[in-house]
Amino acid sequence: MAQSTRQPQATAIARAESPPADRSGLKNALMIVGIIAILLILWEGAKWFAAINNYAIALGPLHIDLTLLNNTQLPHLADIIASLSEPAQRNGPPLWQMLLESVAFTFYSAFLGFVIGGIFGFALAVLFAHVSSLQRGMMPFVVASQTVPILAIAPMIVVWMGRVGDVTLAVPLIAAYLTFFPVTIYTLRGLTSMPPTALELMETYAATTREIFFKLRLPNALPHIFTALKLASTASIVGAIIGELPSGIQSGLGIAILNFSRYYNQSPSRLWASILVAGLAGILFFSLIALIERLVVRWRPVESK
Asked: Could you say which DSSP state residue 94 is in?
C-alpha cells in the first residue's frame, strides 16, 4: 500500500522537475498560418468565381454585380507582391524601397505619439486613482474626447502646430490623441482593482502612499497597462497615417496611400501593397510591446472581489 502511494508521488515530483514543453507558441503560429491560408483561398476563390460568371450573377429578377472583384478593383495577391519590385514612379526606385522609407517616417511619428500619449494617459490614471472627485468630474470629458472624429481634429492640430512653427509635431500629437485613452482607462482599472485585504495589510504596517503605489498598485496594474499599450501601439500607427494627410508632409505612409488611391484604377496593386505594409507595421509594433510584456510581466493581476 505504501509502495503504491509513493509511485504517484514520485511521478508528480518528476513532472514538476521536468514539466512538459510549452507548445503554445507553435500552436499560435500554426493557427496564424492557417488563418492566412484561409484568407488567401477566399480571396482568390472569390475572384475565380466572379471570373467564370463574367462578374455578374442572375438569380431570377435579382442581378448581382461582381465587377468589384475584377483585376482593376481587386488585384491578385501575386500582383500585389510583384508590384513591390516594380518602380513606384517612372525611372524611380522600386516600390518596396519607397514604402520602407515611408514606413520608417510614419513609425517614428507613431512611436513619438505613443510615448507622449502613454505618459499623459498614465499620469492621468494615477491622478484619478488618488483623487476620486477629480475622476468623477473629468472622466466624462476623457470619454467624450474619443467620440469626436479624428478626421475633424487632425486639421485643427495641423493649423495650430503650423502657427507654433513646426507642423511636423502635429502628426505625433494626433497619434498621442488616440493613444492616451486606452492607457488611461486600463491603467486606472489596474490601479484601483487591488484586493482590499492587500491594501488593508499595507495600511496596517503604516505604509506610505508612495510605498503602496510602487509595491501594490503598480505591480497589480502592469498587466492592465501592457494590455493598453498593445492597443495603443496599433492606434498610434493609425493616428500617424491620418495625421499625415492634412499636414502636407510628403513623406510617410499617409501620403503614399493618398497618392496611390488617386490612381487606383490604373494600378490598384500599389495601393494594396501600401495597405499591406501599413498592416505589417502595426503588427510589428504590437509584437514588440507583447515581447516586452513577456519579459517584464510574469504574473497576472488579482482582481478585487
From this structure: B
Q: Is the pLDDT of residue 115 over 80?
A: yes
Give the three-class secondary structure for 1: coil
* Calpha distance 243→17 (Å, rounded): 53
Rounded to whole angstroms, the Cα distance separating 295 from 69 reads 44
Query: Left (φ > 0), alpha (ψ -120 to 50) or beta: where does 236 sit?
Result: alpha
The answer to whether 241 touches 106, Cβ cutoff 8 Å, is yes
| pLDDT for position 195 | 77
User: What single-letter DSSP state applies at residue 89?
Assistant: S
Please name every residue paired with 303 in a beta bridge, in sequence order, or none if there are none. none
**CATH number for region 103-296:** 1.10.3720.10
| 51 CB neighbour count, 10 Å cutoff | 13
pTM of the predicted structure, to 2 decimals: 0.82
Domain ranges of the chain: 103-296
Residue 48 cell numbers, joined: 475565380
Helical ranges in 193-267 per DSSP H:
196-204, 209-212, 218-247, 253-262
Where are the alpha helices (H) located in the chain, listed in sequence order? Answer: 2-17, 24-52, 77-83, 95-130, 132-145, 150-164, 170-192, 196-204, 209-212, 218-247, 253-262, 268-296
104-108: long-range pairs with CB below 8 Å, 24+: 105/251, 105/252, 105/253, 106/237, 106/240, 106/241, 106/244, 106/252, 106/253, 106/254, 106/278, 106/281, 107/237, 107/240, 107/281, 107/285
Percent of the chain with pLDDT over 70: 89
- Identify the three-state secondary structure at position 56: strand
Tell me the pLDDT tens digit for each residue of 251-274.
Answer: 889 888 988 888 877 788 999 999
